[in-house]
Amino acid sequence: MKKIINQPEHVVNEMLQGLVFMHGNLVDRLDGYDVIVRKAEKRGKVGLISGGGSGHEPSHAGFVGKGMLSAAVCGAVFTSPTPDQILEAIKAADEGAGVFMVIKNYSGDIMNFEMAQELAEMEGIEVASVVVDDDIAVENSLYTQGRRGVAGTILVHKILGHAAETGKSLAEIKALADKIVPQIKTIGLALSGATVPEVGKPGFVLEEDEFEYGVGIHGEPGYKKETLQPSKILAQELVSKLLQDFEPQANESYGVLINGLGATPLMEQYVFANDVAQLLADKQIKVAYHKIGNYMTSIDMAGLSLTFIKLADSSWLEALVAPVETPAW
Question: For the domain with range 184-321, which CATH number is right: 3.30.590.20, 3.30.200.100, 3.30.360.10, 3.30.1180.20?
Fold first, then answer.
């Protein structure tokens, strides 16, 4: 294992300290907790929090700031954060109008965020939530019952963050979340596994010329392995799976997110983006929004994911392009 770290057990703590050092104008860390909070002035609006296991950087702490998350809870690597950490994030995010939680569909995350919600409500803080389940690769996985929450979660942060920034109520944000989550779908592929620092070896190993479709962001198995093909073939598989799930109609508009999983160069992501663009043009799919880069990674996994969002309301596009002040958007 070759990593630029000190002691494996100190990775999360030292990462968060480094994050605050580099972006101290935007975020801070709650003393004694693995929680990153924004420095933006509280103005009596709904607070927005998210989180999960570390190892998916810049998710979620990189999206804390004005216009997106109020706070992010950072669990141990690939491990759900504890209810007490989440409770502190809720309390820090509360501006008096309630707190909304964006939860990825993993059993530990759901259980611990819901426990924290109960504790917060006992302290008089109104809390609501949505569970993001955008990964269409597999219905059930090692951590989930139903579809996993992956890179599409970032688009949820962005749209709901804009809603909170513009003064929407907790009930309005909940209604919006329930509308957008079903319109976001993701599928990915991996060329290599991720190495958790405290484990010291990859979670799975592929042959030199092999890759796997549908691998999860914690290394959960996908739906098939094949000999590596040109980017055009990979794009065709992912695009066809997503469009099959959406069944697009005339005059619909879509957003596209191409997300690197940690060890895939932007050069390769752009090659893949070119192939996706040609496929969508051939199918006369209108793309009104696009974004590319590393947003929901899996430590050092080589691979990428493709997310489509059906822009069923013009205000969603407005929210996606609205300016924000965060370390990573």
Answer: 3.30.1180.20
